[in-house]
Amino acid sequence: MTATTPRYLDEAAVRAAISPAQAVDAVQDALRAGFDPGMDHARVFERLTRGQFLLMPSEVGPHAGIKVLTVSPNNPGHGLPRIQGLYILFDAETLSPTLLLDGAALTSIRTPAVSFAATATALLRSPDPLDVVIFGAGPQATEHLATLRAVLGEQRSIASVTVVARTARIVDIAQARVVEAGSTEASEAVAIAGLIVCATTARTPVFDSTTVRSDVVVVAVGSHEPNARELDGALMARAQVVVEDVLTAVRESGDVVMAIDEGALTSDDLIPVADVVRGTVQLDAERPIVFKSSGMSWEDLAIASAIASATGRTADAA
Q1: Please, are residues 212 and 190 in contact by the beta-carbon 8 Å criterion?
Q2: What is the pLDDT of residue 33?
Q3: Which residues contact 75 (CB under 8 A, 6 or more apart)?
Q4: pLDDT tens digit sequence for 216-241
Q5: Contact between residue 60 and residue 309 where contact means Cβ atoms under 8 Å apart
Q6: Which residue among 41, 69, 170, 289 has the highest number of C-beta atoms inside a 10 angstrom radius?
């Protein structure tokens, strides 16, 4: 047997290989096929002189894979991305590398795909036009809105999009209104929103949850540390809280960890996303739904595997 040289897909090629809707399907398909996120391999963080390595290995079905990212906080000042890296896809039987992908592009696609794989059922149960609020004006604001549009399709229209930023700025989102954090306009938008996406680097809650609708869906993807949060404990106490994996959430997700510490939530309250996708847990239409994501390795692998199938690079090392 001889090994083939794995092909490299840059950002443009990665995006061309899979649509936002197909990425959502890939995540849901992995869960419906029986994969248990609790069996995923742990992420590894390694400190470097000017940043850190983030290693994310996983194995699902016929594929294994690892995402190797570097996080360099000073890079934006040099005109470079803060996060860079590669995804390496392997054949699970021979462990031969079959495909290389731009790691940052894969992350950009994966993050909103997981958000809406978890919440699509809740978002599609009403036909009413949807008011959307997005906290954060970075790339994930754009990525989440594009994936949301793909998930809603013709079933539900978007009535308004309000982007809440630290300072008023122009964002690359058509027809979006940008307001400053803490402003009256931001509070008014939160009060009517059917969907709130939090994609910030904040370490404290980004909005007061006392005014949110009883049927609001909230997606929180920004914080990845046990001492950082975007949501307050009052919201977590009111809501059905969906997580990728319970043990991962109580270890890594500050929104969950701090709400538990405050007595607003218990680990038994947490709903695994697999139960939502498989339909074994029904979400309550009269309570807020919170999806708290910390990002897991299996999610990248699910989407990388779908890209490999679409590009004809499925385990072709021989």
Answers
A1: yes
A2: 94
A3: 81, 82, 84
A4: 999 999 988 899 999 999 999 999 99
A5: no
A6: 289
Query: 7-107+298-310 maps to which CATH number?
Result: 3.30.1780.10
Secondary structure of the chain: what % helix, strand, coil (to 5)? 35, 25, 40
CATH of region 112-295: 3.40.50.720
The sheet that has 7-9: what strands, in order across it? 7-9, 97-102, 83-91, 63-71, 51-60, 44-48
Tokens representing 238? 């009111």
* Domain boundaries along the sequence of the chain: 7-107+298-310, 112-295
Over residues 255-288, the pLDDT tens digits come to 999 999 999 999 999 999 999 999 999 999 999 9
Q: Mention every residue, 6+ apart, whose C-beta is less than 8 A from residue 217.
A: 119, 122, 123, 194, 195, 196, 288, 289, 291
**Alpha carbons 13 and 198: distance in angstroms, whole number:** 28
Q: Are 20 and 112 in contact (CB under 8 A)?
A: yes
Running DSSP on this structure, what letter comes out for residue 244? S
Beta strands 63-71; 217-220: pairing state: unpaired
Distance between CA atoms of 57 and 34, rounded to whole angstroms?
19
**Cβ neighbourhood burial of 29 (10 Å; 0-12, 13-18, 19+):** middle
**3-state secondary structure at position 67:** strand
Maximum Cα interatomic distance, the chain, rounded to a whole number of Å: 66
